[in-house]
Amino acid sequence: KVSFAVNTLGYSRRFHVWAAPSQDAEHTYEALVQAFRYFGGVPRTVLVDNQKAAVLKHDRDHRVIFNAGFLQLANHYGFAPKACRPQRPRTKGKTERMVGYVKQHFFQRYRQFESLAHLNQLLLLWLERVADQRPLRQFRQTPSERFSAEVETLQVLPATDFDTRYHDLRQVGWDGYIEVRGNRYSVPERYCGQAMVIRLSLDDELTVYSPAGDAIAQHRLQVPQAGWRTVPEHHAALWQQTLSVQQRDLRVYEEVL
């Protein structure tokens, strides 16, 4: 199953589509990162649907409680977040129409894809060659033509993209492993017993960071219950200690007794 995110600029009606395997927070944020990169700038206000990745709730006083991760994204790009009013679908009409447009004009034409990467490549070509050039009858212009004026109002992209990787804390066991999604992954033995930050990329790459912020281990995420994944260099010192104990002369133990 494939999900796709549609993000539309209000003035030009230019939009971006990005396909993903999930609608979780990390993929939702990455869809916006990809859209900003495609547009070459950032709108001053971003109107979002009420998905949990962006909006936790609307309180009794009609105040919006945004997801902390989404606020970090907004702060990184400098846009003001705004949520659609509940039960008011007209507030997101432009994007809803573009969803229908994608289904009708793209997916009716392209029905087979080799991979998600291939699908997103096709979407990008289709956006540039078809969607950006479609005539807007009410304006007698194309989105591409209207964008030439709108681009001047967009904010400059920051020097780096927002880091959309999932992150959490994990305690390193005294055996030199951390547990992630039912499997255990090695880290250098000197970090035994310490709390580490982990980050999981959208392509299932696990990176472990030390308390100082240094990347100390990288692993390919395994399927659930696959077992243990060990980098020999991580535990070389532990194994050396074990071997030294195993190879002691028996007279050492006689002295103890």
Automatic annotation (TrEMBL):
Q: Which domain of life is it from?
A: Bacteria
PROSITE patterns tied to this protein: INTEGRASE
Family annotation (Pfam families): Mu-transpos_C_2 (PF22483), rve (PF00665)
Q: Which GO terms describe its biological process?
A: DNA integration
Q: In what residue span(s) does the Integrase catalytic domain sit?
A: 1-151
Q: Which SUPFAM superfamilies match?
A: Ribonuclease H-like (SSF53098)
Q: Name one GO molecular function term.
A: nucleic acid binding
Q: Which InterPro entries match?
A: Integrase_cat-core, IstA-like_C, RNaseH-like_sf, RNaseH_sf
UniProt record similarity statement? Belongs to the transposase IS21/IS408/IS1162 family.
According to UniProt, the name of this protein is Integrase-like protein
